[in-house]
Amino acid sequence: MPRPLPLLVRPWRQRLPCAAVAALLLAGSVAPAWSQAAAPAPGTPPAPLRLPGLGESASDEFNLNQEKRIGEQIMREVRRDPAYLDDPLLLDYLQSLWAPLVRTARAQGDIDADTERLFPYESFLVRDRSVNAFALPGGYVGVHLGLIAITGTPDELASVLAHELAHVTRRHIARSVAASSRASTLGLAGMLLGLLVASRAANADMAQAAIMGGQAAMAQAQLNFSRDMEREADRNGLATMTGAGFAPAGMPAMFGRLDGASRLNDSGNYPYLRSHPLTVERIGEARQLVQAAGAASAPPPAPLLHLLMQARARALMDPSSQALRRLQDFDARATMTQLPLPDRLAGLYAAALASAALRDFDRADRAQQAASALLAASPLSGDAAARRMLDAQGVQLALARGDAAQAARLIDAGQLVDGSRSGLLLQADWALADGSVPVLRRSAEALQTWVTVQREDAAAWQALALAAGRLGQPLRAVRAEAEVQAALGNLGGAMDRLRAGQQLARRGGPGTDFIEASVIDARLRALQAQRRQLQADERKAGERPRGDAPE
């Protein structure tokens, strides 16, 4: 029986208690209408617009610690949502755009020491074909695959990320919540989760009906961003993306793309436009700022890597057989050879991925080989990033067919074990398929080093658990399984696994490790303390009379 295709959909994401989308969370009921601001001097990037400080109300009623707790609570649910997608290759690409924006915001002073210490500034993927992105409390930004699929250049995608980052760094959610002093911290988290569920309703009318009652409607009113907040997010975002090296023209280009696409056909597929309404003034001001800065009026052409990531997003955003077959059929289209070379490569890449998802591995291999040959014979053959992406998909296909030897050849030839997260997890999948002790041991050591820093990486912990089990290290495997559950927010499941580890350690036997047993004991105590704190917070919220402000 062929091995499941690795890295595409990790099997430990289960039990959907809420949706991973927050279009309504950031919905604005009033379209921005701005006064003209002073333009920057020619040749200089636009300066971030600074609104007045939050003041005592926001800092007292929705402080950083409360915002962090709400964000963590929401993300515990989001990570267990099947719509939450951990595709390492696509996530690496998103991170390559997100990380320089965060670094620039830090350098510009938008991220201070307190938020740097408390907020993770994490971007994540949502398997949804609608065009949307959203910010959550505590420094989290979600991106729908439909948004990646519609962007024409990395600069356009970076402009959306920079805008959402500005919502976080300027604490717009806190400002909105501070407008009402009647919601408890945990009560607010519950209302936000309700909005997340409503935002994934089948149509806009159903979603609107779901949020029209009581507290949810109040939360919606609190979280509507003001005109000034949207204006600030645009201007700060433009300054941040420019400072990070992206073409500022990407922002007006993205506005134009969204506006044109929604005019042709919205039908509920463009929630970003409902949560961030476009106006002629908004598009015009973005263009004026770009012109005043002396930047080019259009972003540079998209690199091949972005086109491949667009194709990957299209293949992953809709897992239905009908959608996958449409992408699969690209390799048989007579008009394929008439397309520009980058479009042909992207189409073949998506066709291979779609065929693999349909378990048609022979056809997937043919499309993959055609894409590799096309790249090798083209003027783009020196594009190392595109070559790596094709090689990485080749490894996935080889592992899905159970061909560990071919996967090893591609890993070595493509130098895929390069310190990236996707390379680490590709190595782990190959090690498990190969099964030899030296290969498993190298993979386990690399994974252990990674999770020491990236403690919330459920995928890496899961790979480590499997590798440790193969190596005859039961305590290490059980501890890693517990960390998977902890990273997914399932504290009860994590503690159950740690207790099982304690029992295993008491029985002794092969693979018993005193150091690992001590780590299990300490970790169990830490999780028990964490759960007691959460329970105390819930009791406090339940005992507070209705309408009382949080402490």
| Structural classification | mainly alpha
Write out the strand line-up for the largest beta sheet, numbering strands in chain order: 1-2-4-3
What is the succession of H and E elements? HHEHHEEEHHHHHHHHHHHHHHHHHHHHHH
The separation of the N and C termini measures 57 Å
State the helix count. 26
What percent of the residues sit in helical stretches (DSSP H or I)?
55-70%
Describe the largest sheet: 4 strands, mixed
What would the principal axes of the Cα set say about the shape? globular
Report the mean per-residue pLDDT as an integer. 79
Low-confidence stretches: 1-43, 46-59, 201-215, 217-223, 545-551
Integer-rounded radius of gyration: 24 Å
How does this model look, in words?
The structure is a single chain. 63% of the residues lie in helices and 3% in strands. By secondary structure, the protein is mainly α. α6 (154-169) packs across α11 (227-243), α6 crosses α12 and α21 (421-434) runs parallel beside α23. β3 and β4 (140-144) form a beta hairpin. It has 26 helices and four strands. A four-stranded mixed beta sheet has the order 1-2-4-3. The radius of gyration is 24 Å and the shape is globular. The protein starts with 54 loop residues before the first helix and ends in an 8-residue tail after the last helix.
